[in-house]
Amino acid sequence: MARHLTKSDWLRAARLALLRGGSSEVRIERLARELRVTKGSFYWHFEDRKDLLEHLVREWEADFPSIIARIKDRRGPMALASLIQLAVAQAPLGERGLVPSDAAMFTWASISPEVARRVNREEKKRIRILQRMIGNPNRTELLYLIWLGFVARGQRVPGSRKRFPRLARSILDLFLPRKSPAKKRLRPTS
After folding, report:
1. Is residue 169 part of a domain?
2. Is pLDDT above 80 for 179?
3. How many angstroms separate the Cα of 178 from the Cα of each of 45, 82, 106, 124, 140?
4. Is residue 46 a contact partner of residue 147, using CB atoms and an 8 Å limit?
5. Residue 25 counted as domain residue
6. What is the pLDDT of residues 109-130, one digit of tens each?
7. Contact call for residues 5 and 38 (beta carbons, < 8 A)
8. Is residue 186 assigned to a domain?
9. pTM of the prediction?
10. Rounded distance, CA 137 to CA 126, Å?
11. Domain range spanning residue 103?
12. DSSP code, position 136
């Protein structure tokens, strides 16, 4: 019986290939082999490899705004706590290819000037949004650099990603006042 794959199936396989081996691993033949289908199935959903790669960049560009939209009504400590909680929930999804991965995109940007241009533009937007949430530009940059360090280390030492929930609590301890109601709302982690 022939398998009928959706566009989402192909994108998930491509996200995983990008995360594990970079853009050079996002090859139609390789993805088809991993999905156990012919590469003809690919062409129902994408024009070519370039189209698939463009989809990967576009979905990553849309990811952070969709996260922010989920917390748009919150301000101050509550917004930051909600953002950290969403990051804790989303990080494992990226590792399984279910959502775009910052690690994969940042690695790709390090070797592609075009992707770097787009990533840099999105990072500026992220930092502006964080600045509105946090207020202090130095604390905003520090928070973003903590995230980048976590992402980079997770690529080199994948097991370190498991510590993110505990690190997220430490981030809140650093960035929120001692008795903030937002910290109480963050679920305990193991």
Report:
1. yes
2. no
3. 51, 17, 33, 29, 18
4. no
5. no
6. 999 999 999 999 999 999 998 8
7. no
8. no
9. 0.86
10. 13
11. 56-181
12. -
